[in-house]
Amino acid sequence: MNRIQEVHDGVYLVGSPDLTRSEDCCVYLVNLGDLVLIDAGAGKSAAAIVENIESLGFQAKNLSAVLATHCHFDHIGGIPKIKKKTGCHIIAHELDAGPMEKGDPVRTAADWYNASFPPTRVDYKLNEVREVLKFEKGELLCLHTPGHTPGSISVILDRDGKRVLFGQDIHGPFAESFGSDLAAWRKSMDILLGLKADILCEGHFGVIEPEEKVEEYIKGYLREFQQG
Q: pTM here?
């Protein structure tokens, strides 16, 4: 039986293809006094994700924000329902916020899922290379790491001597319709390698640790896409 996983102190895997629905990305919850959700799945599992949050003893009304690592449907499809349920804020990079606010079926990859994404307002748009989001009992560092999409971000949490990296979709895929840029992606991966993360929370392959395995995971994809 698949169970909610505590990745690290106050970090939980609350959605995934095994845990919720097959089309979902991995969805992570971070307790920073305020609750922050990293991505939101493809949509049909939104209620299950909220139930998983509440099963941990938290109240859905305390969900402060959903942080979209990029604008693809399997990561943002659940945002409208979760926002309606909890009143949370939506945060994304400005370069990926546009497709979300327009409901662009191509840039959001909703057309890959034979689905539609309703135009959804992004409450706060990241626009710096590095930007710190402060919450009640901690902070998240957001890095602009383009490549998979123009507005892809990676998120870092330093806690209890461990560095947790939320590096969704490091593996791609890459497509012209996404606005992918392999040269930019390789530079982004070099940045992530320099972080020396102890734990990688990936978008579709779950949790990878320790640091040596995180490094090898990233380098493996750099080798795969060394040309292009």
A: 0.96
